[in-house]
Every structure is written in structure tokens, then in C-alpha cells.
Specification:
Length: 392
């Protein structure tokens, strides 16, 4: 096969792959719960909503925890509590939570002073919070997520009406600066392409979904899946909670809350790059081969078509023009329900290189250090590998 035919074949395969992803995503919208389109229950329907516990862990979250907790306490929901787990904080987090709890008895604070062996801090905090919670439903979230008052009632109403066990909502991300926005948008594209979260609601599919900012689950389903104890050493606890739930037979759906649940994932691009040190290798089951294979595929199928337009001629160039049009369209559609600009896909080659460099940096640091450091605690590779969740 000549180089020209090889480039044409690559362009054709790439085009088919992106068209397939776009079609799959469009068809999968029937299983996605768009919370802004769901009516907030009223009257007797609202009164019948089951008791809800909002649970989060906080370690040194003094900067953002108060506005987040205030938004949780402002939820328009008939019967709920907020369980905050102060996880060994050595800043003002504990004092802030104690002050808020003194003013509102719907907030309960559980203090963790020591991390037991065999646990990641966040996973243990969420397990502790779930154990202390009293609600029939548990909304696992993060200490910096800001909620719009009706979001919980909308999601729970859907659970009741459609007999759902798990609603995983992709919180909207507030990001400042072109570099950080492009990084997050590119990361989200790869996440969606790999996990296809819209398929989680398809009973015939093995796809699963979970998001740390909004994992709403029936207590019975959570316990049947093994709780966070089954994920004790898993850095991808949010995604793999969804995996465990799907494996246990739970009916789950991916939700899009839009701006009704939002978070500043990272304040800067540098913080985002450093933040992914803890879970990059976990996402590929600690395999260098899988990581580099995935990066190569991302570059070849996402960045190369943009460059090919400038470097190639004739049919190969026009084939890659078609690829770029489809890529930008598909990615732009994914971003349309977020606060990120829909023109960011035009700069995908830069975003792909940023993400690829982040992966390589994280892999190198993980193996150089022999593990990961997460919120002041070091976890060895041996510990982390023992905590892997079996394949779905």
C-alpha cells in the first residue's frame, strides 16, 4: 500500500469513527436526563418525595465550602439533611462547618481525625457520611459544588417516576482563561468518547457512568453494590461507583443539570495538570501500554486531521476537511449544554497536546514516586493496584 492510499484509508477510518460517535451520541440522548427540561414537582408530588441525604467529604476546603453548603441548605426539597464529613482538615474547614451547623440543624458534621489503613481519604469520608446519613436517597457530591434550589427535587422526581436507582449528573464547570477552558473541553471529549455516558441508561449496554459532583443513588442500590467499601483504594471512586452499581443491576442514567449544579473544577490550567496526577494511571488500570496507546489514538484521530489539511493535497486533504467538520460539530454539540464556548473545538490540536502531555507527566510522576499523593496523603502503587475494581 502506498503512502497516499494509507493516508486515504486513515482519513476514511477516522471519518467513520467520528460519524459513528456522533450518531451514537445523538441516538443516546433518549436515555439522558436533561434536568432543566424536567418539571420541579409541586403539591402532593413534592410532598411525597422520599427523604434525601446530601453527603460530601471536605479536607482543607475553607475557601469554597461555605457557599457550597449554603446552596445545599437552600435546596427546595421537603425532607433532607446535609452530612458533611470534615476529613482531617488542618485549615478553617472544621470551624466553618461547625458554625453553619450551629445555625441550621439540617447540617450534621462528622469529624474524621485519622484515616484507617486500606482507604483513600475521600472514599472513606463518603463511606462515613453515607453510614451517618438517614435518607432513603443519598446525593454524593463535592465540597465546592453550587446547587440551584430545584435541582435535587427534579432529579429525585425522575427517580420516582421512572424507577431509576442512580442518576449521575455532569456538573457544569466554571473555568477562566482560554487554556483551562480548552483543556477541560478536550478532556471532556475524550471522557465522553471512551465512556459514552449517554448509553448508561440503555439496559442492553454495558456502559456505566458516575460523576463526583452529582451521584444520586437509592440507599438500597448503594448497599447492594457494596458501598464505598468496595472502592476503598480506588482513585476513580466516582466513575467506578457507577460501574459497581451497573454491575449490581442498578438502573442508572446520565443526567445533564446544566448550570443548576456547577463547580470550579480547577482554578488554573496548572492546577488542572497537577490535579490529574492522582487518577490518570488509575483510568488505564496502571498500564503504561494502555496509556500510550490511548494517547497515540487521540493524537492520530483528533489532532492529525487538523494538521493533515495543511500538509496534504488532493482527496486526502478533502477527506480530512470532512473529518474536521464532523469533529467540530460533534464536540460543539457536547459543549452546548455547558458554560464552555462552543468554538473551542476549533483549537482541538492544542488541547490534545496539552492533555497528552498531562498524561505523560502524571504517568512519569506516578512511577517515579512509586504511587500518588492525594490531599497530603501518600498511597503506594501496591496499595492502589490491590484496590482495582474488576472489569465490567
Amino acid at each position: 500500500m502506498t503512502i497516499e492510499l494509507g493516508l486515504l484509508a486513515l482519513g476514511g477510518i477516522t471519518l467513520l469513527a467520528w460519524v459513528g460517535l456522533g450518531i451514537d451520541g445523538a441516538l443516546g440522548q433518549r436515555w439522558v436526563l436533561f434536568l432543566r427540561r424536567c418539571s420541579a414537582p409541586a403539591g402532593e408530588a413534592r410532598a411525597r418525595l422520599p427523604p434525601l441525604s446530601v453527603v460530601f467529604g471536605a479536607r482543607n476546603e475553607a475557601e469554597g465550602v461555605e457557599p457550597a453548603v449554603r446552596s445545599m441548605l437552600a435546596l427546595d426539597y421537603p425532607d433532607f439533611e446535609v452530612v458533611a464529613v470534615n476529613d482531617r482538615s488542618d485549615d478553617a474547614t472544621g470551624d466553618i462547618l461547625a458554625r453553619l451547623a450551629a445555625a441550621d440543624d439540617r447540617l450534621r458534621v462528622v469529624d474524621v481525625t485519622e484515616l484507617p489503613s486500606g482507604w483513600l481519604g475521600k472514599n472513606h469520608a463518603l463511606w462515613t457520611g453515607a453510614h451517618a446519613a438517614t435518607g432513603d436517597l443519598i446525593l454524593f457530591t463535592d465540597a465546592d459544588v453550587i446547587f440551584e434550589p430545584s435541582v435535587a427535587a427534579r432529579a429525585v422526581a425522575a427517580i420516582v417516576e421512572r424507577d431509576i436507582d442512580h442518576v449521575a449528573g455532569a456538573t457544569d464547570v466554571t473555568a477562566h482563561g482560554f487554556g483551562l477552558q480548552l483543556f477541560i473541553a478536550t478532556f471532556a471529549l475524550f471522557f465522553n468518547g471512551y465512556f459514552r455516558p449517554w448509553r448508561a441508561g440503555d439496559p442492553r449496554s454495558d456502559a456505566y457512568v458516575g460523576f463526583g459532583g452529582f451521584n444520586l443513588v437509592r440507599r438500597t442500590a448503594y448497599e447492594r453494590a457494596g458501598t464505598h467499601a468496595a472502592l476503598a483504594m480506588d482513585p476513580l471512586d466516582d466513575v467506578n461507583l457507577g460501574k459497581a452499581l451497573k454491575k449490581s443491576g442498578a438502573h442508572q442514567v446520565c443526567a445533564v443539570p446544566g448550570p443548576m449544579a456547577r463547580v470550579e473544577w480547577y482554578p488554573t490550567l496548572t492546577a488542572a495538570i497537577r490535579g490529574l496526577e492522582k487518577n490518570t494511571m488509575a483510568g488505564v488500570n496502571w498500564s503504561f501500554g494502555l496509556l500510550f496507546g490511548g494517547m497515540a489514538a487521540q493524537i492520530l484521530f483528533t489532532a492529525w486531521p487538523f494538521l493533515a489539511i495543511l500538509m496534504l493535497e488532493g482527496p486526502a486533504r478533502w477527506l480530512n476537511v470532512a473529518v474536521v467538520i464532523v469533529v467540530v460539530t460533534v464536540h460543539g454539540a457536547m459543549l452546548s449544554e455547558t458554560s464552555l464556548p462552543t468554538w473551542l473545538p476549533l483549537f482541538l490540536p492544542i488541547g490534545v497536546l496539552l492533555v497528552a502531555w498531562t498524561y505523560m507527566r502524571a504517568a512519569a510522576l506516578t512511577y517515579w514516586r512509586g504511587g500518588i499523593e492525594w490531599r497530603g496523603t501518600f498511597y503506594s502503587l501496591a496499595e492502589l493496584r490491590r484496590g482495582e475494581l474488576p472489569p465490567a
